[in-house]
Amino acid sequence: MANEGRQLVLASNSPRRQELLRQAGYRFIVRPPPIDDRGVSAAAGPGAYVESLAYLKAMAAIQAHRLTEGLVLAADTIVELAGRIIGKPDNEADARRILSQLSGSRHRVITGLALVDAAAGRRLLAHEVTGIRMRRMSPEEIDAYVAGGEALGKAGAYALQETGDRFVEKIDGSLTNVVGLPMELLERMLKAAGHRPEDFHE
């Protein structure tokens, strides 16, 4: 096996991303970055923005954990509505505001991925876009959803893999992208970086 002994390192504490990797059969270790995903300019557009955030997370994990080998994977997910970038809500009031904006909308979920070879320093960046059509939600539905605790910590203040899917009418594109880690894109990136995805499987 050409890449026997190579290690996939997930630079994220997200249980959703970890579960997606496990479900796909990947073996990996978790080394989260000690940074907040703020301070990057979105002037270049949402795709470049999430790619930059993912790359910063990967590099922060490499530096914080003193990684000298392994392929480091980092991701960042946002929602884009009419040209505006929407991240994670700051609190419950912010979550209600975000969901009120998304109610009845067509918006896009965009995830940037970064793959960085910790030994060689080579990097590969890309992003995936999924279109979402969300049904109109009543204020009472929004209040109940936020009170249930799912909205916090999620881009766009909803979680498709939990109960937020009841608000979604149509998905155009990758489902795993909406959850936070586009698995189809990851496989393409591993191949583009010269690896066989199965070399990182259990």
CATH class: Alpha Beta
Quaternary structure type: single chain
CATH-scheme architecture: Alpha-Beta Complex
CATH topology: Maf protein
What portion of residues belong to β-strands? 15-25%
SSE pattern: EHEHEEHEEHEHH
Q: Give the structural class.
A: alpha/beta
Q: How many beta-strand elements? A: 7
Please characterize this protein's 3D structure.
The protein is an alpha/beta fold and 202 residues long. The chain has one domain (8-200): Maf protein, CATH 3.90.950. It is built from 6 helices and 7 strands, in the order E-H-E-H-E-E-H-E-E-H-E-H-H. It has helices at residues 15-23, 46-64, 92-102, 139-147, 175-179, 183-192; strands at residues 8-10, 29-30, 71-81, 84-86, 106-117, 123-134, 168-172. Strands 1, 2, 3, 4, 5, 6 and 7 form a 7-stranded mixed β-sheet that branches. A hairpin with a 2-residue loop joins strand 3 and strand 4 (84-86). Helix 3 crosses helix 4. The model is unreliable at 1-5 (pLDDT under 50).
List the SSEs and their pairings.
Blueprint: E1 8-10, H1 15-23, E2 29-30, H2 46-64, E3 71-81, E4 84-86, H3 92-102, E5 106-117, E6 123-134, H4 139-147, E7 168-172, H5 175-179, H6 183-192
Brief digest:
31% of the residues lie in helices and 24% in strands.
Quickly list its features:
single chain, 202 residues, alpha/beta, Maf protein, seven-stranded mixed sheet, 24% strand, disordered N terminus
